[in-house]
Amino acid sequence: MRLSPQEIAAALGAEIVAAGEPGSPRRAVIDSAEAGPGDLFFGLRGSRHDGGRFAPRAIEAGAWGVVVSPDWRSSFAERANEDERRAWVLVADEPLAAMQGLARAWRRALGARVVGVTGSVGKTSVKDIARALLPGRVHANRENLNTEIGLPLTILEAPEDAEALVLEMAMRGEGQIAELAAIAEPEVAVITNVGPVHVELLGSVAAIASAKAEILDGLPPGGTAVAPVEAGELEPHLARAPRLLRFGPGGDVEATEVKVEDGVTEAQVTTPVGSQRFHFPFTEAHNLTNALAAIAAGVALGAELAGMADRAAGIGFSRFRGERLQLPGGIVLVNDCYNANPVSMRAALDHLASLEATRTVAVLGEMGELGAGSPGYHREVGEHARSRGIDFLVGVGLPARDYDPDELVADPGEAAEFLSQQLEPGDAVLVKGSRSAGLESVADQLVDMVPAEEG
Q1: Gap between the Cα atoms of 156 and 300, Å rounded
Q2: pLDDT tens by residue, 324-358
Q3: What is the distance between the alpha carbons of residues 253 and 229, in angstroms, rounded to a whole number?
Q4: Which of left, alpha, beta for 189 (phi over 0: left; psi -120 to 50: alpha)?
Q5: Are residues 118 and 260 in the same domain?
Q6: Which residue range(s) make up the domain with 239?
Q7: Which of 345, 395, 288, 435 lies closest to 120 in space, CA to CA?
Q8: d(CA 47, CA 113)
Q9: Same structural domain for residues 340 and 237?
Q10: For residue 206, which of 227, 234, 175 has the smallest C-alpha distance?
Q11: 105 occurs within a structural domain
């Protein structure tokens, strides 16, 4: 991190209580058990504990320094003559806000181009695709580091030669996207879509759209918003964008001459700067839409279409997002259980229906945080599965009864046991639900439980 200890303290808004070794830290950590030589440990305040109590442990592990709240100033001052004074001790009124301030300072020091990605569905996949398509050294969130804690940690992990940051931004309430945008300062803001996700917290899809649109207000005068052609409740907010690129049929960035074959989606992609043939290593229609959003972000940054097309073969998705597994007997298992909501459920079922299979089986867990309308949303997804010709529907957990499944089981373990006995050669199986449903274990168990073919 090309910042001196004094610059770091200024960005943190912190007081230097103890000076340590010269140089700068290699990364930021919030878990003292993960702290090691060269790390900067942040003692965040939690609902039950103040992380400052673990700062000595981080120092013992060789941390470059620690950031703690004023409550711990006196305890460190008392250790003035001890060896652990070799570490920098910085006191900030609120360590989380200090970490966010340091992340913003590092983002500015990098001078990298920044793409912010939010939306109800598809933001992680858009992030994964954009990371592969953009030129140069690209840094992006790992796992689910997309919150007010995870986003600054992601930025502080960025290497000093990063040329672009692709930052996924999660939203669970009003004002959170604005907070994240203030840290990341994106010049391109991608909103994948808006749907009934977190409606329990915000009350309506219109309120969700308003919260997602906060990212637009963080754009600089020359910035670009990327949004779908069919923007729905988001539409009234898009007038705030300095520049707007639409993706999807009839938009600024759209796909034509689409052909899906042998695990590859081939498409001609037209944009305001030209047209290019792409070969994508996936078959899902919704991921083609996600790719158009990522390409639009690349166009906004001035990336060459030919270069993005060359890099398309390197697209890879985070685990549990459309992960495709091959089981004995030619059974295809689509493990898409990272999260679920009505929009992503319908897209996943559409993909399942498109697979060439002897029989299609959907294993669906609860969709969480849908509020009072939850039973109706589940019922609509079940009806969509029937309309798409899904042959067999398995519901997991009591809320899944509203899918009107052919079989309702109590938990993921029972689901795996049932499926291991019922699956037939040539079946295609989708496993999908909110993380709270715990369906990731179904795929893991099936890999071990489905018997291999004889002979």
Answers
A1: 25
A2: 888 888 898 988 887 788 888 998 999 899 888 99
A3: 10
A4: beta
A5: yes
A6: 111-314
A7: 345
A8: 35
A9: no
A10: 234
A11: no
